[in-house]
Every structure is written in structure tokens, then in C-alpha cells.
Amino acid sequence: MSKQCNVCGIEMEPALTFMSEQGEICYACAYAPEDAGTKPLSSVVMMAAGAVAASYVVSMEFIRTVNGEIVAFKDWGAVVMGAVAVLLGLLTFVKKDFGSSRGLGMGVAIGAILLGAFRVVYGLGLFI
Ligand SMILES: [Zn+2]
């Protein structure tokens, strides 16, 4: 028979339960960083979201036109910040550090990976 963690609510193996002030909690919650249960989004998720935003703000555009037609386009700001967003999004999954709003944190991380990848492709001028 499995039990539920009192903090994150996941099903847990009876052998991997820990007693705490909150009652029985899972291994992950028992060893989670101090602020894991208090911050809705972990700092790595916030940084990933910030990098996506920065990829739209930080612009280092390089445009070459021939007879008024764009023949080359690069936005290194979008490439670099987009790549950072992808890495931070992936890091969130590697560390499984989503914050206490797990589903939301996971959604933001996935969004950062997808949007970051999009910004890299855009910044490299592959849409032109
Ligand atoms: Zn838990």
C-alpha cells in the first residue's frame, strides 16, 4: 500500500517515507532545499523565464540588405539569451527543481525551452 506525501502529495514507497513536522513526507521533500516548499517557482525556473524575456529585450541585430532586400539577418542577443533559456529550462528538469507550484514550474520550464529554441532559430536568421 502506498502513501501520499504531506508536502507535495505524490505517491511514495512506504520504505522511503520520512517523518517531519508536516507528518509523513517523501524522500525528495525531506532532502529538498530549505525554500522548496515556500517559493512557488524555483530560482532556476525564474532565471529561465528571465532569459526568455531578455532574448526579446537584448537585441544585437545584424542586418545586411542588397537593393533594399534583407539577405542576411542575425540577432546575437536572441541567440545567446535563447540558448541560456534552453539550458536553464533543461537544468530545471535535471535538478527537478520546479518550486512548490510543481506543475506551473514545469510548464514555465518547458515554455522556456521551446521559446528559447525559437529565439535561437530566429536570431540565426533561419526564418529568412
Ligand atoms: Zn514530497
Structure, described:
This protein is an alpha+beta fold and 128 residues long. The protein has two domains: 32 residues, Wheat Germ Agglutinin (Isolectin 2), domain 1; 91 residues, no CATH class. Helix content is 48%, strand content 20%. The chain has a two-stranded antiparallel ribbon with strand order 1-2. It has a two-stranded antiparallel ribbon with strand order 3-4. A hairpin with a 2-residue loop joins strand 5 and strand 6. Helix 2 packs antiparallel against helix 3 and helix 3 packs antiparallel against helix 4. The longest helix has 22 residues. The protein starts with a strand and ends in a 5-residue tail after the last helix. The model has no long low-confidence stretch (mean pLDDT 87). It binds zinc ion (ZN). The site of zinc ion (ZN) has 8 residues, from strand 4 and helix 1.
